[in-house]
Structures are given as structure tokens and as C-alpha cells.
## 1
Amino acid sequence: MSPDPNTSTAHPGGEPDTGSAAVTVQVPAKVNVQLAVGPPRPDGFHELANVFLAVGLYDRVTARPAERLELGCTGPDADRVPLDGTNLAARAATSLAARHGIEPAVRLDIEKDIPVAGGMAGGSADAAGALLACDVLWGLQTPQEELLEICAELGSDVPFSLVGGAALGRGRGERLSVLEVGAEFHWVFATAEGGLSTPAVYREFDRLTGSAAPEPQPSEALLAALRRGDAEQLAACLANDLEPAALSLRPELSRTLETGRSAGAAAALVSGSGPTCAFLATSAQTAEDVAGALREAGVCRTARTATGPASGARVLHDRTDRTATNRTP
Ligand code: ATP
């Protein structure tokens, strides 16, 4: 069922009155600390070695009973979020309902704080959030394995948004192994005006590398740095194979990266497919200093600090009278 265009509006303030039952789920953004990209596969996807770290910038998704699927979105980027059946949160609710043979009779309200089309998996976060929120609202108690299967159908980054923490993603990034992380890392994220389309960045990657991309492998040194919680070692290993493609499409990002490095970041890289730039700092104070320098230089739209690893999708509020189902996946 498609969302009703008459009711699928952003709410600049206040909550829609759709009854008292409601489930709110919080979901983190991600940064790829390593993104090794292989040549394109016959199905068009690329084989990846994708080391994800969830970071403390969050979207919230609230699910409430409704007569049919409805969507709302608030936040600074809300006008760039589609409020129709293509929204990943709507697709998640529809997929879960179809699996259980029920109607997706739900209103989903997204409080969007993750940059849109920013290379931080914001849409994937909303999909994972909607999936968990609907599962709890509808009292389905879908096993984690099955939720992860639905996530993988919705998008390559969605399984990680559900799980959070840190993980190595193989295949197109959906086959996850959880990674140990020895400490909290301090990050700065510089958002840019406008977004970058992930498919366009992969096309540019193909144009720049041809079929010369080697089989992607995770870096043992990087995994060890994560395990030990060693920020300097991690800084030396950060790598994003999509960065040259993102910089080719948005050359001005080089200045943003350079500004953060000069201000004391231990490392700087484009986050995923960009255009958000990520900076690793060795302390909370250095992260604040780098964010201040980026703002002052006017090389980004916003500069925000966050730490990682952060928890995956988790239920913040459950007003369904089924508190036994209140859980994290
Ligand atoms: P990734 O890092 O996973 O490649 P991204 O962070 O660069 O993704 P998203 O914010 O997920 O990009 O948005 C990519 C596109 O997906 C948007 O331009 C928008 O058209 C569409 N989209 C669908 N659902 C959502 C959603 N809930 N939030 C944001 N964008 C969405």
C-alpha cells in the first residue's frame, strides 16, 4: 500500500494525534573506517570489504497505528526525504507486514538528524528503525535472523544499521561479522551542501578504475587498531576506495579534508560515498577544536562531533502495553 499523499506531510512541530500506542526506535549513522571496493559483479553490485563503525548521530523513528501507511519527517533535511512508497522506512514496514500476511497500517514519523545522501547511511538507518518499531508495535517478535534477511533485501547497509557497534561487511556489505572495539573513538563530521548519489559515485569509481580493482580484503592492521582501541594506529589505516570518485565529482571536498587535517585531526576521509567528510581525533578536545576550525573556515555546512562505536537500532519508548517485547535486537 502506498502512503496517502494527503497525509504524508512533514510536521514542522508537534506530534500527530493517532492514538496512544507508539514505539520509538533510535538508530545511528555509520562511518566506513575501511571501504575496499572490488570490480563490479555480474549483478551490478561491487564486492566489498566494508568495515562499519556506528557513530552517535541518530535518527528516530516512531510507529503508531493508523488506517494505512503514512509517513512524516522533521529535521533540517526533511524536505529532501521522499514521503512516498520509495522511502526506505515505508519499504521496511511494507516488507515486514507482507512477511506476516498483514496490512502495513502504520504511521511512521522520522526525526531526521543524519545528513540525507551524505554517505552516512541515513536512509538505511530509517529502514532498520522502522522495521524494529513496527515489529514491536505489531507484537510480531520476528527472530533477529529474519529481521536481518529483510534488512539485506532493503539495502546493503541496512543490516549494519540494525546491529550497530562495529562490523565487517562482506559481499555487497550485507554479510556481517561483528568486530570487537577496545575504546571509544572521537570523530568530527563535516556535512556538505547537497548530497551525492551513491550509484553515481560507484559509476565514477568504475570509470576511474576500469576492471583494475583488486579483490577487496579487510586490513589486518586496521582490525587490530579497532580491537586495541588505538586511535593513532586506526588513523594510519583509514581507507576509502570511493574517495577518489567522490572527490572527482566534488573537488571542493579536498579543501574540507585539508582544513581538518591542518586543525589537528589525526586523519581525514570522505565518509562512504560522501559528500560528508569524517575526521578522526585523538581526544574529545581535539575533536571540538577541529569542528570549530571547519566551521570558521566555511568549508562545510555543519561540523559535528560524535563518538563511536554506538549501539544499533534500539527501542527508546514502547507505549504498546506489551512491555515484554521491549528489546534491542
Ligand atoms: P549510504 O551511505 O547508505 O550510501 P547515504 O547516506 O549517502 O546512503 P541516504 O541518506 O540513505 O544516503 O539517502 C539516499 C537517497 O535515498 C536519498 O537521496 C533519498 O532520495 C532516498 N531515501 C529513501 N528513504 C530515505 C530516508 N528515510 N531518508 C533519507 N533518504 C531516503
Note: The radius of gyration is 19 Å.
## 2
Amino acid sequence: MVNLNIAIERKSYASNMPDVLGQLGFNVAQGEFVSLVGPSGTGKSTLLNMIAGLESIEAGSIRFNDQLLKGPPPCKLSYIFQQPRLMPWLTVFENLRLVMPDSAPFEIEKMLDKVGLKGKSDCYPKQLSGGMQRRVSIARAFLTRPDLLLLDEPFVSLDAPNAQRLRSILLELWLEHKTTVVFVTHDLNEAIQLSDRVLFLSSSPGTVLLDKDIDLPRPRIDDVHFQNWKKHLLSQNPGLLEGQVSDVASESFSRGFI
Ligand code: ADP
């Protein structure tokens, strides 16, 4: 299990380009589900890629259980992207076995069962719907029993019932595995439904505008109570979803900042 500490000073892609990320810092506790919410271009994917070791950290640090990130992440990490990124020439079963070559066939079948793909192990990705392919990518991510799971808008462009079913599957697996999760989305409803905490990012350069605990009981359904909670949050923080600074101070902006 992993505890993440993020303390970024700034990030840019080139010296002649504006900073994508400004100063931002936060902790993600072991087993916590944290969402990053903000408009397009606020550096959410950049930050996720930095945590995954795919993008350089020029100024600042990222720590995994106090261990400084310098190259490959020092823990078992799974990353679910917008696209399921399955190998088209491999069956569903083979796509899963690729990440865990030593896993017993029954373990793979059990994981497929959990994501609602019982009986689909011999199918090729092109024989599956978009939603089913994403189920495979969720199964693949959890099969390795990751300490840290990163997700970048994994349910975007799915129809509402499919996205809802996948969110439920994700939550069930997260509760079972107690994985630490960082989830990127621009959909506030999705973030409220899933997360323990939501971090709202400002537009360029990206910084944390608000670090908000979601204290609604689970399971969370989009009912009146849910909508009132959201309305209250937005009325207290106008401009939040546009990535603009409001007068309301962040509840715990500097939480974990070194
Ligand atoms: P978000 O995930 O919030 O939409 P991104 O992290 O994808 O934001 O992008 C933030 C900014 O960084 C955007 O202006 C984007 O064009 C730029 N950017 C992202 N990746 C690269 C890259 N590899 N090279 C140069 N600019 C990039």
C-alpha cells in the first residue's frame, strides 16, 4: 500500500513555453480515493504522468511512502487511460495474462467474472463493445494487485448507464483491494460519487484551488441530497469548475506540502 506526497514547484514542457503546473502540494493517504477535477488543459494528465514516472519532475518532488520518485515508481502501479489500450491480436484472457504471466487461469477468470465478462475470455477486443473493452482494462489494472492506481478520464465518451456500471465495478474492486487511487475527471458528479476527496485545479498554471473532503455516505446516488451538497459547494466557490480562484480559502490547501 502506498502513501503519496506531491510537492511540485512548477512544470513546463519547454523553457520557451508557459508553465503547465504551478506550485501545488497534497498527500494521498494509503487506500484513499482522490479525484483531480478541472477544465481541460489544467495539467491533470501531466500531473498523473509525473506520478507514473512518465514525465520529468523539474522542480519539486513526488514521494511514495517517503521514497523519492527518481525514475520508475517504487511500487506496483496500474494506469487506466481513456482508451483501453488492449493488444488487438490477443484474446481477452491473453491480454490479462500479459501483465501477470504467472497468474493461474482461474485467477484471470475470477477477475473477468468480477468485471462482468464471464465467458468472454476467448474473445478478441474487436469482438467486444467499447464498454466491455474498458471492463477488460479495469480487470487488467486490478489483476496485478496495484499499490497505486491512476485513472485518466476512464469513462469518457461512454453512454450514461455503461459509465455508471463501470463506476460501480471500479468502486467494488477498490473497496476489495484497498488500493490508493488518483482519478482524473472533468465530471464533478463522477468525482463526488467516487471519491473520498476532490482536488479542484485552477487553469494555467495548474494549482490546487480547493481540497475538499466528500463527507456523503456511500453508496452515493445522484439524489436530492447529493445535488444539494453539490449546489452548496458551487455556491460557496463560484468559478470552481472553470478553474478560477474564488474568495473562499481552500480547506486544506497546504495539506502535506513540504
Ligand atoms: P488536462 O489533462 O488537464 O487536460 P494536460 O496535462 O493534458 O491537461 O495538458 C496541460 C497543458 O500542457 C496543455 O496546454 C497541453 O497542450 C500541454 N501539453 C500536454 N502534453 C504536452 C507535451 N507532451 N508537450 C507539450 N505540451 C504538452
Note: The two ends are 21 Å apart (CA to CA).
## 3
Amino acid sequence: MLNVVLFGPPGAGKGTQSENLVKKFDLVHLSTGDIFRANIKGETELGNLAKSYMDKGALVPDEVTIKMLESEVKKHESPKGFIFDGFPRTKAQAAALDALLAENNTEVSAMLALEVPEEELKIRLAKRAETSGRVDDANPKVIQNRIDVYQRETAPVAAYYQDQDKYRGINGIGTIEDIANRLYEALEA
Ligand code: ADP
């Protein structure tokens, strides 16, 4: 299996590039943010809980997120692989993902980390707010909080994969196509 962790700060382009990777390698796309938003829309219990964190730009608690991700992975019979978008965001989530994949006799193939400077992220998120309808894109304070949470809790996850020699840093500046090609090259190497 080809199991890709697509990593990077809010606004780095994970969602956009996931679409390209899904098409190119025929992977199952699991975006924890998208799954939470679908639950919010469907007014499920999980959605109501997630919303209280997401609207502030905070992380949904690990226990909840990990359980949700596990049940999503189990929905797929024999996929060619997964692209994990927005997960893992903490070291505890990374350890849980390793355990889950090991149970299925597979593992994370690589972490592809989109690298984009903070100033550019703020510009992209403000622009996305015009069309996304996302509460967490609309407020500069919430955007700043998401970036701070990323630096504090999520950035250390990169070291977890560096220790396993699976980390690949990708320049996230350029056209969508340029960046897609960099990702393909990193996976085909
Ligand atoms: P972005 O990366 O642009 O912030 P996402 O759609 O990936 O957007 O995530 C939106 C929000 O969903 C996060 O700010 C967080 O509240 C919640 N979320 C998504 N994935 C996770 C996760 N793995 N762990 C905890 N919370 C998450």
C-alpha cells in the first residue's frame, strides 16, 4: 500500500494537492477537517462537539479524532493506499496511526510536508474566506490561533517522521501544477 501523510500548516494547500495525489495514485482521501465539517453539516453528535473546537481554531481532542479516523480507515476493504490530510496533528495521533496501520500489516510510506511561510498562509486563508464559508477562515484572530496551535502541537509531528526517515519537505510556493509535480517526484523517488 501507498500511505501518504500530507502535512503542512493551515492554508498550505493540503486539500488542493490531495485531489491531485488521489487521481495520480488512486488513493483513498481521508481529510479529518472535511469529515468533521460533514458531521457539522449533518448535525451529528460528533459534529456538534467538533464545532466547539474548530470555530476557535483549537484542535478537536485526540481521543475523539483518533476514534473517528480509525472508523473511517476500517470502511475501506482493500484500498491501494490512503492519503491522510490533516492527520496526524499531534504526536499521540501519529503513534495511533502507526498502531492502526500495523494492525493491517502496513505502514506510513512517507510524510510529504508542504512548506509555506506564515505571511503567505495568512494571505491565502484570508482569500479562501471569501468563498469557503468557513467560520475559522473568516476571523484573523482564529487564523492566528490555528497557526499558533500548528507551531506548538503539530509542527513537532514532523520530527516523529524524521526519526523514521520518512519526512520529505516540499516547497509549497508555485503553481498548483509545479507543486503537484514536486509531490509526485518525492513519492516516486
Ligand atoms: P486547515 O488545515 O486549513 O486548518 P482542516 O480542514 O485540516 O483545515 O482543519 C480544520 C479544523 O478541524 C482544525 O483547525 C481543527 O479544529 C480540526 N481538525 C482537523 N483535523 C484535526 C486533527 N487531526 N486533530 C484535531 N483537530 C483536527
Note: The longest strand covers residues 110-115.
## 4
Amino acid sequence: MKITKICCIGAGYVGGPTMAVIAQKCPDIQVTVVDLNQERINSWNDENIDNIPIYEPGLGDIVAEARGRNLFFSTDVEKAIHEAQVIFISVNTPTKTYGSGKGMAADLKYIELCARQIARIAKDDKIVVEKSTLPVRTAEAIKSILDNTGNGVQFQILSNPEFLAEGTAVEDLIAPDRVLIGGDNHTEEGRKAIDALVNVYANWVPKDKILTTNVWSSELSKLTANAFLAQRVSSINAMSELCERTGANVNEVAKAIGMDSRIGSKFLKASVGFGGSCFQKDILNLVYISKSFGLHQVADYWEQVIIMNDHQKRRFANNIVQTLYNTVADKKIAFLGWAFKKDTNDTRESSAIYIADDLINEQAKIAVFDPKVPENQVFLDLNYLETRSSEKNRKNVEVYENAYEACQGAHAIAVVTEWDEFIGYDWQKIYDNMQKPAFVFDGRNLLDGNKLKAIGFVYRAIGS
Ligand code: UDX
Ligand code: UDX
């Protein structure tokens, strides 16, 4: 089977970049990305390529090249489903905020809605691909909905989890470590569907990097990868606290152990805690699945990764309060960064939100500057926590368009995102305009502590 038409439901951080790269690499395939959110689709279609809704280095050029040629963004979900041979489901699967599994299980309502819609519309055989991260065995539920509510056509379900990291999405998609495709390898039709998707990726990914497995292995591998990565961050963050007490330096420790080829150097940067849309959600999901199988030790083991991460965020906020003579009431604290990591405008689960929330509880005035996060997003994030009224958040937080203004008159600076531009700032100028003593809390070990100390700052970094 040769694929010529693909549709993707969900024009988000995963669906958008992934489809853009498929379209760029496969000019013979028509790729249509659909979304319920009209505003988001309008932004993807904006003539000014700088206005596309997702910031990723290199993404603008790719969209500019393929858009209108074989890459389309639309809200006409039905038409796109009707025409496509392959339908990717890339809608969000947030942690449930209600009912059983609240705060842990993945909320699959959007997935189910997609499945029902596909079943209703499809008039010929379709391959349905799970792109969203899903609990293991979700494909079974999708299959059952499709087969029981459909028009008698055949559906093949594949799992093709995305391993891209935000900020490096384009790189990760163009040169992936591996592509994982899970499908029903026991039937002829299943194998054909797997091959069809393999051939799409084979347009640019070497065949030996395209791994095929059964559906359940593929679903579980994605959760496992994220759990292992998050665990490394929590492990090094746990050591960062011990380093602070003992005079060891966590960067030196990380370097020393990272050179052990059995351990490796990646994901060993101590930080204010991991954020992002995936790690916490996926681990909670893993914990929930383990519990539901009665595997309580397995659940507790993974839950500790989250507990450590929450601790690291709170510890950072506490450290600021304690160092500023146990009170931050009415003190201006500048936040450099708000996104969950550099090179993205995504703020989901960003540590900055929780640290700001703790400090506002202590009546601090927060001054935020992030190169890519707009003002309204900062308030959306704080209001979402429902710790206090939105008026109170407005009163305690100000968002600046310029870092120097954000730091003007501040008692302390908290570096919470590792944007490269922070390194090159005129730190002497920043220091001169701050309250004295002026403090820098470096939550990313980004800045040169020796240089800042020479200027006169009181410098504190995570783990040193
Ligand atoms: C993705 C994956 O889907 C998620 O499972 C993974 O764990 C994280 O990354 P992401 O692309 O980051 O999610 O989510 P988001 O940026 O919120 O995009 C989802 C899009 O789907 C939104 O634009 C939303 O409007 C759209 N959507 C949602 C639909 O079009 N239909 C729906 O029924 C639900
Ligand atoms: C992650 C996975 O890496 C990706 O494979 C998956 O598909 C989606 O989830 P993402 O959340 O985009 O990607 O970013 P990632 O680079 O993994 O960082 C997650 C968080 O961990 C960030 O807040 C980051 O700052 C933090 N982190 C990462 C550290 O604190 N230290 C590190 O050494 C690495």
C-alpha cells in the first residue's frame, strides 16, 4: 500500500512539528493537520511565519517550505478524515482532574472522541496511528470503538510514539535516535499497515533505526523512556541537595559520573526540577497503571521520582526566602525565564509557576521576563493553580518585555529557565540597578558564579 494522504488530529507541540517534517521530507504525500481550535489553525496559516503558534528553532523554515504545497492546516476535521489513508491522533491527554484516577490517570476523553469521529466518517479502510502518549492497552479501546461504531470498514491501529523534545523538535524529527512503530504483527493486514508507515519514515530515516514491535510494547516504551529520563533528573537533583550540605559541587559530581560510559553524560543537569507536558503526566500514569494491577511497590518506586521533583521546586523557593533574611514580603524578585526549558514557548508544568506561587504566598512581588512567553500565559498558568484570585495574582506579578527592567530595583533574581541570552547580559549594569545586597539564585547553573561574585552579587546555585 502506498500512502499519499495523511491526516493528523491535533495541531499542538507534537502534531504540528511532526507533520511539518513529514510533509517536508515526503513531497508526494499530502499532509493535513486539523484541530478544533480555530485560533490555533489561523496562527498556523498566518502569512507571517513568525506568528505560527509554536516556537521551535528551524520550524518556521520548514512550514514556510511545505505549507500550501503538501502541508495544510484546517478545522475541517471530517473532510480530512474522509480523505486520508492514515490518521494520526495527536490530541492532548492531560492528567485527569476529576473522578476515579483524579490527579494521576491520563484523561482519554479526547482520544475517545477522536475514535468515535473517525468511526462515523470513515467510508474506506484506514490506518489509525496513536501519536499521543497513552496508557498501555489504549489501542484495544480505540479498536473496540472503531469496530463497534464504524461503517463496516477495516481499521488497523498502530502506535507510533513521539520521542521529540521541545526546543529540539526539528532536529529530533529529522535525525531521530529511532522511530518506534507498534502494530498487530500476527495478521497479514497488521503487517501491511506497519510496512506502510515504515515506508513513510524510510523517506528520510535509515531503516535500521525504524523499530517495529507489538502495540503494547510500543505504548509502554514511551512511558518507560520518559520515566527513565525523569528519574535521572530527580536522581541528580537529590544529589544536589546533598552537595549543598557537604561542600561537593553537583556539576563536578555530574561530570565525574557522566564520563562513566555505563552512565553517560546526558540528563545529569541539576535544576529547579523538571517540567514540561510529559514527564510528570507520564510517570503519574505509570504509577496509576501499576497500582491498578496491584503492583504497589512498583507504583511507589516511580512515584518517588515525582515527590523528589516537587521537593526540589519547594526547596528552591524556601532557599530564596531564608536567604533574604526569612522574609520576602513586598520584595521584588525578578524571574529570568518562565518556559519549562529554553528554546520553547511552552510553559506546561514549568517549575517557575510553582516557585512563583510559593513566593507569592510569602507576599513577594514577582517580576517576570521570558524571551518567548507572553504576559497572558504567565497569568493563565498562575490562575490555573487556583491558589488565589486572579486579581491577587495581577497585584503580585508583573510581566516585563525587557530583562533589565524586570531586574531594576529587585532584591533578588531567580534564574529558572536556561535561555542562552541570559549569559550575555550586562550583569554589572543589572547589579548597579538592584537593591543591595543583590542576590542571584541560579536554578539552572547557567551563569558564571565567580564572575557574578566579583561584581558583588551574592550568588547561590543549585547544588554548589
Ligand atoms: C502531545 C501528545 O498528544 C501528548 O499525549 C503528549 O504526552 C504530549 O504531547 P501536545 O501536542 O503537546 O500533546 O498537546 P497540545 O499542544 O495541547 O496539542 C493538542 C491539540 O489537539 C490542541 O491544539 C487541541 O486543540 C487539539 N484537540 C484536542 C483537537 O483538535 N481535538 C480534540 O478533541 C482535543
Ligand atoms: C521529553 C522527552 O525528552 C521526549 O523524548 C518526550 O517525547 C517528551 O518529553 P521534553 O519534555 O520536551 O521532552 O523536554 P526534556 O528535554 O526531556 O526536558 C524535560 C525537563 O527536564 C525540562 O524541564 C528540563 O529542563 C529538565 N531537565 C532535563 C533537567 O532539569 N536536567 C536535565 O539534565 C535534563
Note: The mean pLDDT is 96.
